[in-house]
Amino acid sequence: MSWFYLLIAGALEVIWAFSMKQSHGFTRLTPSIITIVTMIGSFWLLAVAMRTIPLGTAYTIWTGIGAIGAFLVGIMVFAEPVNAMRIGAAILIVSGLVLMKFSSG
């Protein structure tokens, strides 16, 4: 169950990153509220997952999900640039996540 909580925490991290961008520096109320609520949920689920998943593994997976998710949202929603170097960096992040998962047993 801890891995499920960690995946949901990572998904919430993507949501709060997106809504933070939409808040325009916390000047828009609804995106600001969504940011704060999803941040709290993300941190809480990360903490619950860390009860049984090692710190280094949980934190790495959580930030990796957030990084890759934000990267994809940036491309799909904000038309951010896609080039070989950015894709290569994303592949390295995903590779690191896979290795971290397998190394934790």
From TrEMBL:
Its main location: membrane. The keyword Cell inner membrane does not apply. It is a multi-pass membrane protein. It is found in: Cell membrane. The chain crosses the membrane at residues 33-50, 57-78, 84-102. It holds the Pfam family Multi_Drug_Res. Keywords: Cell membrane, Membrane, Transmembrane, Transmembrane helix, Transport. PANTHER family: GUANIDINIUM EXPORTER (PTHR30561:SF0), SMR FAMILY PROTON-DEPENDENT DRUG EFFLUX TRANSPORTER SUGE (PTHR30561). This is Guanidinium exporter. It comes from Microbulbifer harenosus.
